[in-house]
Amino acid sequence: MPSQLPEMGRAAEPDPLAAMRGRAHAVFASFLGWTLDSFDFFVVVFLVDILATQFAVSKTAIVATLTLTLAMRPLGALLFGLLADRYGRRRPFMACVFYYSLIELACGFAPSYHVLLVLRGLYGIGMGGMWGVSASLAMETTSQRRRGMMSGVLQSGYSIGYLLAAIAARFILPAWGWRAMFWAGAAPALLIAYIELKVPESEAWRQHKKSSFSGILRTVAADWKMAVYLVALMTLMSCLSHGTQDLYPDFLKSEHHIPAGTVTLIAMFYNIGAIWGGIGIGHLSQLIGRRRAMLVAIAISLAVMPFWAFGGSLLILAFGAFFMQVGVQGAWGVIPAHLNELAPDAARGLLPGLAYQLGILMASPTNNIEYALRDHLGYGWAMAAFEITAMVVVALLIALGRERHAKNFFRVPDAEAAALSLHH
């Protein structure tokens, strides 16, 4: 009679339900980390006039704090990306959340402009580190068949953070003042306990980890052509994002004389389009491939360009802006999956985030270029000409580039590889 006792020494079978819950927690934590990081960045956007008055400086000086934040982001991507590839995703993730939450809290106590400027520069390090670490964790723990949609969900956190900052400006700012806006940005620190209790370490990282920082850097250097391609791609993608969002509220106010309150509502409306596009196009990329989905998204943006830039009524402009962001942020929704699939296995925490942040930095003159073109072409044509050029060039770069759609992030054991070979 066969024994009913379990065999001695046999490892317990993994619990599929527990593994599924762990993956869900990892994706949710990554999404929250990027969303709340975005919120902390956009807080300043809604406080430019107030901070200028508070510290007796020009609005240009306050805008300079945003520029400094962007300039410091590549340093954060390098620092936290190296830590994530060397020590795992969880601990650097928690360290990054703690760091940017602490800096955001300190901003609420800033006694002078120069202190605020330094703090916003330090905050940029945390913001730059967050995306690469969270994206690698989310993409490595998501199943291959859901990676496209989860990519869009993760990237939509940027737009949701913008929306949350707008809501805070509408309710927290009038009731408790500008300092409370920054104090609210310290809330992400609560995420650390959630990560510690619920989020498992990435098994893909365990399989591919390097034993030294130099080994990680050598991995990137060995694939330098891909690194250059990713930076170029992210530079052009940043031109699309910032070039269609940052000046558009000013365009609506100065060119079409739309009241500020209405402009805020339009901004909320087109951010809903951005969220919808990011998730939808991200999911589409799972069905037709990363590059094709991105090209579809860019085609949508090109198609609505006349309505976005030259709409003759409030309704046309609003829907033009909505579908413009469906396309632009739809293409962005593919980026977390696409970059993580193209990156070397041992540098997945570093390279995607560093390429992302270097692209942001290199595209930083976008608004200045569009604003300068306005004096020669008019506001609508300035934005349209710049964005059409950027869209055509990035479409060519995407079409000529590579993809590793639904790449397996895990090392296949020898026995399993042999079984697969026999099966095929």
Describe the fold and architecture.
The protein has 21 helices and no strands. The protein has a single domain, classed as Up-down Bundle (Growth Hormone, Chain: A), CATH 1.20.1250.20. α4 runs antiparallel to α5 (113-141) and α6 crosses α16 (314-333). The chain has 424 residues and is mostly helical.
In terms of topology, how is this protein built?
Blueprint lengths: L15 H27 L5 H7 L4 H29 L2 H18 L5 H29 L5 H30 L1 H7 L6 H8 L4 H6 L4 H10 L1 H22 L2 H9 L3 H29 L1 H14 L1 H6 L3 H20 L1 H8 L8 H12 L3 H12 L1 H22 L13 H10 L1
In brief:
79% of the residues lie in helices and 0% in strands.
Q: What is the percent of helical residues?
A: over 70%
Beta strand count: 0
Q: Which sheet architecture does the biggest sheet show?
A: none
Separation of the first and last Cα atoms:
39 Å
Count of domains: 1
Q: Helical segment tally? A: 21
- In the predicted model, the low-confidence regions spanning at least 5 consecutive residues are 1-13, 414-424
Order of helices and strands: HHHHHHHHHHHHHHHHHHHHH
Strand content: under 5%
CATH topology: Growth Hormone, Chain: A
* Category by helix and strand content: mainly alpha
User: How large is the radius of gyration?
Assistant: 22 Å
Q: How does CATH name the architecture?
A: Up-down Bundle
Give the CATH superfamily.
MFS general substrate transporter like domains
